[in-house]
UniProtKB/TrEMBL annotation:
Residues 12-226 form the Metallo-beta-lactamase domain. It holds the Pfam family Lactamase_B. The lineage of its organism: Bacteria, Bacillati, Actinomycetota, Actinomycetes, Kineosporiales. Keywords: Hydrolase, Metal-binding, Zinc. It comes from Quadrisphaera granulorum. The keyword Transport does not apply. Its cofactor is Zn(2+). One of its GO terms (molecular function) is metal ion binding. This is Glyoxylase-like metal-dependent hydrolase (Beta-lactamase superfamily II).
Length: 244
C-alpha cells in the first residue's frame, strides 16, 4: 500500500492519500486548507486517480478542499463522492460556522468568504461498522464521537510499504506495524482531539477511546489528523489521555 501525507500550512492538518500502488485509483482523506497544489503534484508523481474523498469529521481544516478534489475525479459529471458520517453532514453547509469570530475572519481573509463555499455534489454517509471497498482497499468505519458528533476512525488490515510526501522518513515507525488506522482528530501522538469546541463531548470521547481505540492491536500504525505518525502500542504506553 502506498501512503502519502500532505500537511497544510495553516492548521497543520494531515491530508492522507492511500492507494494499492502507483498508477492506481486512490482515496484522499481530509483535504484541508492550502493542500491542492501539493496534492495534485503528489497524484501526478504517482499517477494516482482519486476514487473518493473520505472525511474523518466535518471541521473546516479537514474539509476545505473537498469539493475541488471531488470534482477533479473522473466518476461522472460531478466527480467522485465525498464520504462523511451523517452526524457531521450538516457541517458541510458552512464549515466556518462554528469557528470563533477572529479565526473565521482570518480564514475568510486568506481563503475567501464562506459564501464562496460549495458543498460537494455527491455526499454519502459513513455508517458505523460498514466496510468500504474503494480503490482496491478495504476500510472499516468506526464511529468515535467526542471531538465532533460524527468523528470516525477508519482501519485497514495492512500497513504501507511505500511512503511519500511528509510521511517519507517514517520508516522506523511504519516497519513495526501490520495494520493502519486513520485516526482523524480522535488520537494523536501523545494527545487526543479537543472536546471543548462546538459538538465536542468529553464523556463521548472517553467512551470512544475506551471502546474504539484501546481494543486496537499494538502494532497498528496511527495516521493522525495532526502531527507525526505513531502506533497504538506507543500511545497505550505513553499517552496520558488514554484510559488506564
Amino acid at each position: 500500500m502506498l501512503a502519502s501525507a500532505i500537511p497544510d500550512t495553516v492548521m497543520g492538518t494531515n491530508c492522507w492519500v492511500l492507494a494499492t500502488g502507483r498508477g492506481q485509483e486512490c482515496i484522499v482523506v481530509d483535504p484541508g486548507f492550502d493542500v491542492l497544489d501539493r496534492l495534485r503534484a503528489e497524484l501526478l508523481e504517482h499517477r494516482l486517480r482519486p476514487a473518493a474523498v473520505v472525511l474523518t469529521h466535518g471541521h473546516a481544516d479537514h474539509v476545505w478542499s473537498v469539493t475541488p478534489v471531488c470534482r477533479s475525479g473522473a466518476a461522472g459529471s460531478g466527480g467522485v463522492p465525498a464520504l462523511v458520517h451523517g452526524d457531521d453532514r450538516y457541517r458541510l453547509r458552512d464549515p466556518l460556522a462554528d469557528l470563533s469570530a477572529p479565526l473565521r475572519a482570518m480564514l475568510e481573509q486568506q481563503f475567501g468568504p464562506a459564501a464562496r463555499w460549495e458543498e460537494p455534489d455527491d455526499v454519502r454517509d459513513l455508517v458505523a461498522d460498514q466496510v468500504l471497498e474503494i480503490a482496491g482497499l478495504s476500510l472499516r468505519v468506526q464511529h468515535a464521537p467526542g471531538h465532533t458528533e460524527g468523528s470516525t476512525v477508519l482501519s485497514l488490515d495492512e500497513a504501507p510499504d511505500v511512503l511519500s510526501g511528509a510521511l517519507a522518513g517514517a520508516e522506523r515507525v511504519v516497519m513495526t506495524t501490520t495494520s493502519t488506522v486513520l485516526a482523524g482528530d480522535v488520537l494523536f501522538a501523545g494527545s487526543i482531539g479537543r472536546c471543548d469546541l462546538p459538538g465536542g463531548d468529553p464523556a463521548a470521547m472517553a467512551r470512544s477511546l475506551r471502546d474504539v481505540v484501546l481494543p486496537m492491536p499494538d502494532d497498528r500504525l496511527v495516521l493522525p489528523g495532526h502531527g507525526p505518525v505513531t502506533t497504538i502500542g506507543r500511545e497505550r504506553a505513553v499517552n496520558p489521555f488514554l484510559p488506564r
